[in-house]
Design goal:
2-oxoisovalerate dehydrogenase subunit alpha 1; 15 helices
């Protein structure tokens, strides 16, 4: 481990405020958010080689800011560093915020000079169709929960471009470790509307056997690790998954999603540090919708020597382009990458929240209409001649009909047996667990009026 830490001496350079040209301090030259005068290219600094090479390159550097003896270095166990006679503290933040990469303006017009990953008609229409499907699914299932038909739900309304744009940029072999607002990634991979309905209604057909809270999806077949409620626990797990893929020389990476609030958890920092030291092929995608007041996620990657980019999360093409590039870097260069996607959560945090208590209806409506990622992408697809009003009407009608049918089937499907609470943990259940199962059955038989009648005992 000591050797690994010495190889990460580049982190000292980053924290000491040296030039971003350092091989371990790689920040993308991005496009200015809401700017009409944009650079024509999205450039990436050359990738580093093995960590020992990068370390040697950094060790040979001296402090470029020193006025005297700037060619002299001090040799410490932690690495060689230049020195200066000037006492200077590292500023707590940069004078300018990291700009935000975007391809489409708010009206869906391609920004002049944008350098983005081209998409075919087939991929573009599929992306748009899935964004609409996600929006309709959220609306229908949210209303079903408000009717008391199941216990809990949260939506991705306003964040559809992050879900679908990133999903389209990944391979089916990549492992997804979601937070809880990424059902679009699972939808893109082939999870059916019926499967979504089965999960939220916790019936016998649910892949999780009804054990999880609603919207805590998972699919072994689709490499989508089951969601867990605690914030950010999936991040260090993703690094472990990525490191195993690296050891097995797989042409794949791990992709971990989190919200901006998750970056304030210790697990976030442990994960970035773990990933940087082990040089794990993992892409961290942060949906920064601002409500956790965790400003400036992209700069947190730099502190750990992780290549990072800030992207307009309401721009599906920008998300697609950035995530595809991040995935390629993670796999080919054996490195972690951090993507911060700026967006806005139009829906309530969940069905347990009333967001009108802390924001106005006018604000919600503005982001729902004027800044909608779906409207923006639709405008671009229509300009290509790939979509029409008739197709729009038919799609929305079809998706709503499928969802209503899926809900009816899910509601009528039998619940998992009570014995499923005790299975799939031990090969041979221990005596105390068997005793608990026996006691539970006895209590249900004694007080049947206090338990659901549709759960087989």
């Amino acid at each position: 481990m000591a050797q690994c830490l010495r190889q990460r001496v580049g982190l000292l350079r980053i924290l000491s405020g040296q030039s971003c040209s350092s091989p371990s301090t790689i920040i993308f030259p991005l496009q200015q958010y809401n700017s009409s005068s944009l650079p024509s290219k999205t450039l990436f600094s050359p990738g580093r080689s093995e960590s020992t090479v990068a370390s040697n390159q950094l060790d040979s550097l001296s402090s470029s800011d020193s006025d005297d003896d700037h060619h002299q270095v001090l040799d410490f166990p932690g690495g060689k560093v230049g020195y200066t006679s000037e006492m200077r503290f590292i500023p707590e933040s940069s004078e300018k915020r990291v700009p935000c990469f975007r391809v489409l303006d708010d009206n869906g017009e391609l920004i002049k000079g944008s350098d983005f990953q081209q998409v075919s008609k087939e991929v573009a229409v599929k992306m748009y169709s899935h964004m609409v499907t996600l929006q309709v699914m959220d609306s229908v299932l949210y209303e079903a929960q408000r009717q008391g038909r199941f216990s809990f739900y949260l939506t991705t309304i306003g964040e559809e471009a992050i879900n679908i744009g990133s999903a389209a940029a990944l391979s089916a072999d990549d492992f997804i470790l979601p937070q809880y607002r990424e059902p679009g990634v699972l939808l893109w991979r082939g999870y059916t509307l019926q499967q979504f309905a089965n999960q939220v209604f916790a019936n016998k057909a649910d892949d999780g056997k009804g054990r999880q809270m609603p919207i805590h999806y998972g699919s072994k077949k689709l490499n989508y690790i089951t969601i867990s409620s605690p914030i950010a626990t999936q991040l260090p797990q993703a690094v472990g998954v990525a490191y195993s893929l690296k050891m097995e020389k797989k042409d794949a990476c791990a992709v971990a999603y989190t919200g901006d609030g998750g970056t304030s958890e210790g697990d976030f920092h442990a994960a970035l540090n773990f990933a940087a030291v082990m040089e794990a092929p993992v892409v961290f995608i942060c949906r920064n919708n601002g409500w956790a007041i965790s400003d400036g996620i992209v700069v947190k990657g730099r502190a750990y020597g992780i290549r990072s980019i800030r992207v307009d999360g309401n721009d599906a093409l920008a998300v697609y382009t950035a995530v595809q590039a991040a995935r390629e870097m993670a796999i080919s260069e054996k490195r972690p990458v951090l993507v911060e996607a700026l967006t806005y959560r139009v829906g309530h945090h969940s069905t347990s929240d009333d967001s009108t208590k802390y924001r106005t209806l006018d604000e919600i409506e503005y982001w729902k209409t004027e800044r909608s990622p779906i409207n923006r992408f639709r405008n671009w697809v229509e300009r290509q001649g790939w979509w029409s009003e008739q197709e729009e009407t038919e799609l929305r009608s079809s998706i709503k009909k499928q969802l209503l049918q899926a809900i009816q089937v899910a509601e009528k499907t039998e619940k998992p047996a009570i014995t499923e609470l005790f299975s799939d943990v031990y090969d041979v259940p221990p005596s105390n667990l068997a005793e608990q199962e026996k006691q539970l059955k006895e209590i249900i038989q004694t007080y049947p009026q206090d338990y659901p009648t549709d759960v087989p005992v």
